[in-house]
Amino acid sequence: MPATTLLEFSGVVRAFGRLRVLGGVSGRVAPGTVLAVTGPNGSGKSTLLKCLAGLLAPDAGRIDYREEGVTLDTATRRRRVGFLSPDLALYEELTVEENLHFFCRLRALPASRGGELRERVGLPATRRCGALSSGMRQRLRWAFALLHRPRLLLLDEPLEHFDAGGVELARDLLGEHLAGGGLAVVANPSRLELPHVADRLELAL
Amino acid sequence: MSRTASSWLSEAAAVFAKEWRCELRTRYALNTVLLFAFTTLVMVSVALGPMGVDSAARATVLPMLLWLILLFAAAAGLPRVFGHEEEKHTATALRLAATPSALFCGKLAFSLTLFAAIEALTAPLFLAMMQLPVAAPGRFLATLVLGGWGLAAASTLVAAIVGQARGQSTLFAVLSFPVLLPLLLLAIEATRAAVGGGGGADSLSRLVLYDAAMTVVSLMLFPAIWNP
């Protein structure tokens, strides 16, 4: 029986001007599993994740993401995925709580969902994001990615800036996501010890 | 109201509230725009003064100066509406979470209220400093509202386009000039009529058409500009 939620992509090509960053990448992720993407800086890991999220349009290739057996168009996929990246920032002028409430309103979620996740990732409610440490900002990115309970998590360098406690938190959050039938693509320059890695994709320069 | 419509409105309201909250904490656009409007106003009034323009030419020249001040004040602050999202890397989070049309409307509402604040401060000061009587105050107010709407709608759309490019301020000036030129001509004509007390109904109805067209075109184009 085919999986109801599934991510498959094949022959994904993306260039920036004359620089070809992705040259026909393919992969598949099934529920409860992780696709680990590794490769040196500049090998196209972040570009691949942005293409999978619908933030960048691939020049060629096919990206097929299905939920409940239905293939989602790019705009819907963009709003459904949970995305974490070092390039992603939240509003420095707003507090942690205000940021999460703002994104709860955009996603038509109750404000309590923001509070629940803020407590889960261990952030102070009233501190402005501009005054957060790098590790705390990474915790906030995790909260942002998980806010709408996505089935597909796209995580670019998810353990960056984390101390031991942060690494443990990230592993727990990912484990819970996978245990609930979610799927994930995790990109990192080096190989990470992650649960439920079903496949690995090595990108080269 | 259907759940979809109420959630769309809530999204737009959230963007509007976020814009003002961030703006009131940084005061970047407010300070830039108000400082620009005030210094230009003072320069114009010192250079020309109430008697500096021939009385026959006052109703012709002064409305043009008022709209030039408003245009440059808008150009100093409104491009930031989208530019700062790209500069601060918050645009990615918005692209993932917001419906493009609701995002645009929230940003447009912010531009409109910001520009209304500029007009509310600048126009009475200009009239007082230049000792320019207005024969038809209602028509003058309508011109400010309609001209402000068009200026805010066009500037917000152009800001979205240039937000993704480098050299934003130069590009903003180049792109906004042909879009804003018809609006400025109509607004100047309607203001002259309001000051002189005769005619101007044609200009006002054309301003309404410009505003409606610009708002609809912006809503149609924005999703393609905002997302790949």
Give an overview in words:
The complex is a heterodimer of chains A (205) and B (228). By secondary structure, chain A is of the alpha/beta class. Chain A has one domain: Rossmann fold (3-Layer(aba) Sandwich). Helices cover 33% and strands 28% of the residues of chain A. In chain A, helix 3 packs across helix 4 and helix 4 packs across helix 5. Chain B has one domain. Helices cover 85% and strands 0% of the residues of chain B. Chain B has nine helices and no strands. In chain B, helix 2 runs antiparallel to helix 3, helix 4 packs parallel to helix 7 and helix 6 crosses helix 7. The relative contact order of chain B is 0.14. Chains A and B meet through helix 2 and helix 3 of A and helix 1 and helix 5 of B.
Write a short abstract of this structure.
The complex is a heterodimer of chains A (205) and B (228). Chain A has 205 residues and is of the alpha/beta class. Helix content of chain A is 33%, strand content 28%.
Considering the chains and any ligands shown, give keywords for the structure:
heterodimer; A: 205 residues; alpha/beta; Rossmann fold; five-stranded parallel sheet; four-stranded antiparallel sheet; 6 helices; 9 strands; B: 228 residues; mainly alpha; 9 helices; 0% strand
Kindly report the name of the CATH homologous superfamily of chain A: P-loop containing nucleotide triphosphate hydrolases
How many beta-strand segments of chain A? 9
Write down the secondary-structure element order of chain B.
HHHHHHHHH
The biggest beta sheet of chain A, please?
5 strands, parallel
Number of domains of chain A: 1
Q: Which two chains have the most extensive interface, and how many residues on each? A: A-B, 29 and 25 residues
Helix share bin of chain B: over 70%
Structural class of chain A: alpha/beta
Provide a count of the helices of chain B. 9
Regions with little confidence, pLDDT below 50 for 5+ residues of chain B: none
Summarize the amount of helix of chain A as a percent range: 25-40%
Share of β-strand residues of chain A: 25-35%
Which descriptor suits the 3D outline of chain A? Answer: globular
Which structural class do you get from the secondary structure elements of chain B? mainly alpha
Radius of gyration of chain B: 18 Å
Q: Major β-sheet of chain B, in short?
A: none
Q: End-to-end distance of chain B, in Å?
A: 31 Å
CATH level-1 class of chain A:
Alpha Beta
Mean pLDDT of chain A: 93
